[in-house]
Amino acid sequence: MRRPMVAGNWKMHGTRASVAELTEGLGNLSLPAGVEVAVFPPALFVTEVINGLQGKGIIVGAQNSAIQPEQGALTGEVAPSQWAEVGCKLVLIGHSERRQIIGETDEVLNRKFAAAQAGGLTPVLCVGETLEEREAGKTLEVVGRQLSSIIDACGVKALANAVIAYEPVWAIGTGLTATPQQAQDVHAAIRAQLQVLDAEVADNMRLLYGGSVKAANAAELFGMPDIDGGLIGGASLNADEFGAICRAAGH
Ligand code: PGA
């Protein structure tokens, strides 16, 4: 049985005051025992959030990490080993905002994925198509290629220590959610792609859906057979809403 995961990606949001309030709110939630809950705060607040959530059963991750596992001369970056040392467990790799706005290529992401694992973090690999790609009927091709890039570089076994998030770019922050069936179709294709290479990795892989998930649509999405939870942006900035989404994964 795959343990569902619900993760909140706070992106570049927050002030000291709002982060303190959100952390306190999260600490007061009653969370379902069977669900792994995680948050990805902005880098500068990560240690505060880790301290604030001590003993609350919520995992903290980094939104980005360096292309090499260990500390060194790399201005402005944070090494996976440094994140791990302060208590981070996860890192987002390949979020569409980093692919599209920062310009991270598959090659950079392959290095980040490998570095994350070597430095003691579990990567949450994000994949997804743009609206143009979907309308051109290329969704499965694009998502398949993003996944193959990591498999070719790191080997399918590396995915045994990873989570995959399918996030259609057109659904992120837009209020447009993929229908449960649209999301399920892509999740099933991702699992089938893994199945051919390694049945155990495929069966155990947690596949999260991301893109305008809210309390109102979470249960229906998480009820699909290949959707094992969610990666939540905007709705994760409100503790009560996020708590409701976490409960929706606890069926
Ligand atoms: P959203 O973002 O929930 O605000 O659409 C999801 C994400 O980018 O991870």
TrEMBL record:
Pathway: Carbohydrate metabolism; erythritol degradation; Carbohydrate biosynthesis; gluconeogenesis; Carbohydrate degradation; glycolysis; D-glyceraldehyde 3-phosphate from glycerone phosphate: step 1/1. Keywords: Cytoplasm, Gluconeogenesis, Glycolysis, Isomerase. CDD domains: TIM. The keyword Isomerase applies. Substrate binds at residues 9-11, 173, 212, 233-234. It holds the Pfam family TIM. Its EC number is 5.3.1.1. PROSITE patterns: TIM_1, TIM_2. GO terms for biological process: gluconeogenesis; glyceraldehyde-3-phosphate biosynthetic process; glycerol catabolic process; glycolytic process. The active site is at residues 95, 167. The keyword Isomerase applies. It is found in: Cytoplasm. It catalyses: D-glyceraldehyde 3-phosphate = dihydroxyacetone phosphate. One of its GO terms (molecular function) is triose-phosphate isomerase activity. Its main location: cytoplasm. GO terms for cellular component: cytosol. It is an enzyme of class 5 (isomerase). Homodimer. Involved in the gluconeogenesis. Catalyzes stereospecifically the conversion of dihydroxyacetone phosphate (DHAP) to D-glyceraldehyde-3-phosphate (G3P). Belongs to the triosephosphate isomerase family. This is Triosephosphate isomerase. It comes from Pseudomonas putida. The lineage of its organism: Bacteria, Pseudomonadati, Pseudomonadota, Gammaproteobacteria, Pseudomonadales.
